[in-house]
Design brief:
mainly alpha; 53% helix; 220 residues; Glutaredoxin; four-stranded mixed beta sheet; single chain; Glutathione S-transferase Yfyf (Class Pi), Chain A, domain 2
């Protein structure tokens, strides 16, 4: 059986959402980030990204990681979701090579154009920086970085409704999870109504709701 390493409060949320959608059996090993532990090297510390046992799976010490009985090991969240969708995803995966290429394109788009500024917004807000002039300025800079990719998504989603193939797929999961980091911005998504509507539809799905409930149940 395949194994997914990582807690819900990490980028493991992406494959966990997908796996919830398609119902493929797997083993879940909840590896936690070492930086979240007072002493990740303590003898009684839970399995974490600094643990020797996990470093044998991913020497880089990052989650998620995905292993299969064949010996395949994947250590990038979007590569994991794309692979699972191709092999097990049915309608959530590509119907042909053209769709496969589009799903890869949108995954790279989400990772390179959306995730970093969206995550900067989230981290600034989480640190209380949105209550300082410097933090507000940083949020404004990163919101501006997102407007160009969001405009592209707005045009695409206004016509298609979904990222690929006029249906919900792994491309929607990957892009929605990267954009989720910016949802706390007070007004940004309102500028792009087709994007906001699409994100609301993605997050209203039962598999997302189940993943999110499990994430909220984990210690922060």
């Amino acid at each position: 059986m395949s194994t997914l390493y990582g807690v819900f409060r990490s980028r493991a949320s992406r494959p966990l959402w997908l796996l919830g959608e398609i119902g493929v059996p797997f083993t879940h090993v909840p590896v936690i980030q070492a930086y979240r532990l007072p002493d990740a090297t303590a003898a009684d510390a839970p399995l974490n990204t600094a643990s020797p046992a996990f470093r044998k799976v991913n020497p880089q010490g990052q989650i998620p990681a995905w292993t299969e009985e064949s010996g395949l090991v994947l250590t990038e969240s979007l590569a994991i979701t794309l692979h699972i969708a191709r092999v097990h995803g049915g309608a959530l995966g590509p119907a042909d090579e053209a769709e496969n290429a589009l799903m890869e394109q949108w995954a790279l788009f989400a990772a390179t154009s959306v995730e970093t500024p969206a995550l900067e917004i989230l981290m600034t807000q989480a640190d209380g920086g949105d209550r300082t002039p410097e933090g507000q300025a940083a949020i404004a800079v990163n919101a501006e970085k997102l407007r160009r990719p969001l405009a592209r998504l707005q045009g695409h989603l206004a016509g298609a409704g979904w990222m690929v193939g006029n249906r919900f797929t792994v491309a929607d999961i990957n892009t929605a999870e990267c954009l989720r980091y910016a949802q706390g911005h007070p007004s940004l998504l309102a500028e792009f109504p087709a994007v906001k509507d699409w994100l609301d539809r993605c997050q209203s799905r039962p598999a997302f709701q189940a993943m999110w409930a499990a994430r909220q149940a984990e210690p922060a």
